[in-house]
Amino acid sequence: MRSLQGLKVIVSRALSTAPSTPVIATKHPFKVDLKAGKLYPWCSCGHSKKQPFCDGSHKKAAPGLSPVRFTPTEDKEAWLCGCKQTKKAPYCDGTHKQSYVQNYTLETNQ
């Protein structure tokens, strides 16, 4: 048996080429009090256990997605999207009222 000293071996993982899509975390928005100047990471994948904010779950569950980071310029109350289908992330735009969201079966492992 020959020695392979000095041989550089590159190992790569096979990744899915399909883009990650968010799952519907809940069928309603979250009312939150935001503080001016604070950085918030809104969960865009729907897998976080700390909804509506990111807990890093996207790294395994939806590697193609990342949180939407935002910093409010003033203290305010806001409604953050819970269905992850909004066109105005991280804010709710009412998409959760659509039939495809309301008819969605929520994952029980969340």
TrEMBL record:
The keyword S-adenosyl-L-methionine does not apply. The keyword Cell wall biogenesis/degradation does not apply. One of its GO terms (cellular component) is mitochondrion. Pfam families: zf-CDGSH. One of its GO terms (molecular function) is metal ion binding. Residues 27-64, 65-102 form the Iron-binding zinc finger CDGSH type domain. Keywords: 2Fe-2S, Iron, Iron-sulfur, Metal-binding. Its cofactor is [2Fe-2S] cluster. PANTHER family: CDGSH IRON SULFUR DOMAIN PROTEIN HOMOLOG (PTHR46491), CDGSH IRON-SULFUR DOMAIN-CONTAINING PROTEIN 3, MITOCHONDRIAL (PTHR46491:SF3). This is Iron-binding zinc finger CDGSH type domain-containing protein.
